[in-house]
Amino acid sequence: MVETANIGLPAPDLDYDAVSSEGKASCESTLRLNILVLPGFSQLSLSSFVEPFYQANCSAGEKLFGWRIVGPDMSPVLSSSGIAISPDIDINCYRNNDEDSPIVIIGGERIEEQKSRLLSALLRSKSHRKLPICAIGTAAWLLADAGILHSGMRCTIHWSKLAALGEKFSDLVTEDCLFVQHASVTTCAGEFAAFDLAAEMIRLQHGEDLARRVCGQLRADRFRTGNHCQSVPLGVRYTGAVEKLIRVIRLMEGHVEDPLPLKKIAHSVGLSRRQIERLFTKHLKTTPMTYYSQVRLKKARQLLETTDMSVIEVAIACGYVSSSHFSKAFKDHFGSLPSHVRPWACSVASR
Fold first, then answer.
1. How confident is the model at residue 12, as a pLDDT?
2. pTM score
3. Residue 29 in contact with residue 12, Cβ under 8 Å?
4. Residue 198 backbone phi and psi in degrees, to 5
């Protein structure tokens, strides 16, 4: 079960004077947020995370939350959608003057290219001091690369990097969920999940009523807890069959390298094989094993697109006994060979 009782940020600090969207904080108990945006960051993640705090301030009539944008330097930072945002402070100045403050990192495209000795040193320093670190979107990759996420730690990341993170850092407990907190580190899938994380932070700091008022102001009927799946199929997301199907789907997603027979899945979840078949037919318009095959092939495509694993390595990681069997299944589903889905295809396919 994903913990949601504590998202890793401290109680409100005193005498905060950080810059926010409306100037200096006016409330002595303002919770300060330092948000590092990296080139290629998700503008949706940033907006989804910050807007609930702004609405909480408006609803409460006081400055409950303050924030400032930290950049790699003082140049405007370009988001994945081409929108640039000007930082309030650069990472060097932040490191020198705010060593004891928490940090929120928002990642996006090409996250592997965003690592630096300065950022890794900053993260390790905060981790050593047990100061809160929050990674949104793909930013968890940088935490793993810096050793902040280490063996046995639970974490999540944007779904597009979930398979790659699990393969690259196999000692981590990667979870398909919206956000998860382990010790002082919080990881969040980003995009709309950043809204859910912000709403949970508001609830923890100032109560359920304020969190619900914020949701109402933003026309959200509710906010989700961290343990909600990122990959809940659309056909079951808003039906009463969610819990029954999720147990089956999570088993499938957890056994990609070593696929389980349907009989064993049925026994594990306490349903009959026929019951599972009816659920998949009714809500997903497919058979359980066809869906299972799609889960494995989608993970394979993610690995091909986001790692330098060879085709045979990807095939084995996704439960195929031979590259020829894998290539045929991949082409039947996606219409192209595995070696054709990435620019370095020829060299990888020939390994």
1. 44
2. 0.73
3. yes
4. -60, -45
